[in-house]
């Protein structure tokens, strides 16, 4: 691995004599930025501290980065140094700027595009990784800089592309470095955005040791154009392929589905309990909902099983409004633990109402495996956004960027704990 790329730029005065005997009144000495892990995975939190300030000095820290589309992002926040002249972002509250309160990763979580005034955006992580440059401003002067390198995956993680013409599925398989112990295999897929949207999550999971197949099920070449009449057997083909790969424990297969994909994850666990051994479903319904056509009309089934459309509801607002019991996903048939999440400010669907309804059905059936709904009251639908510290915000889905990113980071940690338990 290359040496950590940390650049320090210290402004202390015009001459060495000035720097040592007559430092500016708000600086006790050279200002330094300390980062515990200047090179780290994109999902890894880091510790950022400053030294060399005087007590109670107002400090603005600016962050900047470039995503895979060469879109510049930036954020900034202002803090006050402690009585010792130090500043630790893990304990210091931001008094103004991109976020409020204490959040050690707040500057990275709250990066936003700086051109075009976009209110909806998604930071695209380059597969080569990216740098976040920190600039420290005191009284209008730049007094220090540092650069953090954020890795898309660990060295040694390999990728294999699978396409319908050859494999019958559209996905990217991310494998941990060779020599890593056998782990559960993970199949992960997104929701109604379509396409191969779980690529970064797959890379991160592979970096944690889990062989992961990111799967698209519509809106890619060779796949349906819309989220209608998607055969569950398509996912089964992907799971069967995954189970046969080196490093995968075929007796511990996990499916992770997001939003509309959460329906598919729960359905796979319910109808293929011998193949699926744990389910993670994020901001999902627990009810089979209708599929949208190209004009975004709620018109027709989303899923089929053995060539037959699964009964569906058109009510996205009330989990008790299913007119046919067969519209409810039979979650109690799942043969393994279940982890759910929801956002209390979800404006796409009331995911917490739907999640609570799933929990009620599991409890009523005396479900024998661990199951949990993790609720993030201030977050919206994008608490399902996968990898933490990878900013995404879409108007109309609820929550703020700050609340969503805090929820994503918290759930990611819970998800890794869940997967570690499944591994045993």
**Architecture per CATH nomenclature, i.e. the level-2 architecture of the largest domain:** 3-Layer(aba) Sandwich
Radius of gyration: 24 Å
* Fraction in beta strands: 25-35%
Structural class: alpha/beta
Distance between the termini: 31 Å
Mean pLDDT: 92
Helical proportion? 10-25%
Count every helix, treating DSSP H or I runs of 4 or more residues as helices. 8
User: What are the segments in which pLDDT stays under 50 over at least 5 consecutive residues?
Assistant: 1-23
| Overall shape | globular
How would a crystallographer describe the biggest sheet? 8 strands, mixed
The CATH H-level homologous superfamily of the largest domain = Alpha/Beta hydrolase fold, catalytic domain
Q: How is the CATH topology of the largest domain named?
A: Rossmann fold
Q: What is the domain total for the residues? A: 2
Number of strands: 23
CATH top level assignment of the largest domain: Alpha Beta
Q: Which strand order spans the largest sheet, edge to edge or round the barrel?
A: 12-13-15-14-17-18-21-22
Q: What does this entry look like structurally?
A:
With 424 residues, this protein is an alpha/beta fold. It folds into 2 domains: 16-151, Immunoglobulin-like (Sandwich); 158-423, Rossmann fold, CATH 3.40.50. The chain is built from 8 helices and 23 strands. The protein is globular.
């Amino acid at each position: 691995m290359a040496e950590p790329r940390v650049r320090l730029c210290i402004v202390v005065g015009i001459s060495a004599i000035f720097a040592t005997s007559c430092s500016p009144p708000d600086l006790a000495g050279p200002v330094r930025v300390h980062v515990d892990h200047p090179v780290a995975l994109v999902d890894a939190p880091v510790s950022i501290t400053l030294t060399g300030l005087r007590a109670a000095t107002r400090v603005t820290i600016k962050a900047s980065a470039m995503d895979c589309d060469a879109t510049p992002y930036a954020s900034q926040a202002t803090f006050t140094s402690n009585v010792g002249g130090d500043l630790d972002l893990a304990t210091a509250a931001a008094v103004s700027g991109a976020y409020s309160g204490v959040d050690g990763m707040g500057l990275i979580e709250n990066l936003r595009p700086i051109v075009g005034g976009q209110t909806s955006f998604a930071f695209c992580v380059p597969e080569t990784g990216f740098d976040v440059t920190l600039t420290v401003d005191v009284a209008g002067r730049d007094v220090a800089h540092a650069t953090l390198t954020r890795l898309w995956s660990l060295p040694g993680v390999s990728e294999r592309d699978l396409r319908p013409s050859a494999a019958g599925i559209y996905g990217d398989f991310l494998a941990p470095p060779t020599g890593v112990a056998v782990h559960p295999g993970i199949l992960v897929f997104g929701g109604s955005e379509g396409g191969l949207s779980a690529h970064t999550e797959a890379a991160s999971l592979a970096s944690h040791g889990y062989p992961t197949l990111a799967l698209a099920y519509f809106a890619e070449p060779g796949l349906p154009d819309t989220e209608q009449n998607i055969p569950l057997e398509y996912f089964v083909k992907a799971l069967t392929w995954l189970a046969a790969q080196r490093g995968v424990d075929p007796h511990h297969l996990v499916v992770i589905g997001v939003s509309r994909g959460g329906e598919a994850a729960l359905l796979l666990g319910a109808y293929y309990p011998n193949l699926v051994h744990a389910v993670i479903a994020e901001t999902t319904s627990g009810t089979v909902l209708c599929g949208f056509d190209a004009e975004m009309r709620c018109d027709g089934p989303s899923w089929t099983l053995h060539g037959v459309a699964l009964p569906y509801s058109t009510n996205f607002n009330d989990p008790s409004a299913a007119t046919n019991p067969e519209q409810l996903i039979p979650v109690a048939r799942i043969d393994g633990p279940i982890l759910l999440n929801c956002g209390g400010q979800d404006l796409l669907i009331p995911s917490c109402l739907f999640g609570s309804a799933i929990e009620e059905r599991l409890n009523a059936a005396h479900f024998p495996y661990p199951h949990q709904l993790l609720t993030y009251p201030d977050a919206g639908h994008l608490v399902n956004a996968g990898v933490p510290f990878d900013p995404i915000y879409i108007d109309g889905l609820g929550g703020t960027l700050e609340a969503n990113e805090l929820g994503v980071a918290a759930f990611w940690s819970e998800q890794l704990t869940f997967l570690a338990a499944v591994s045993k």
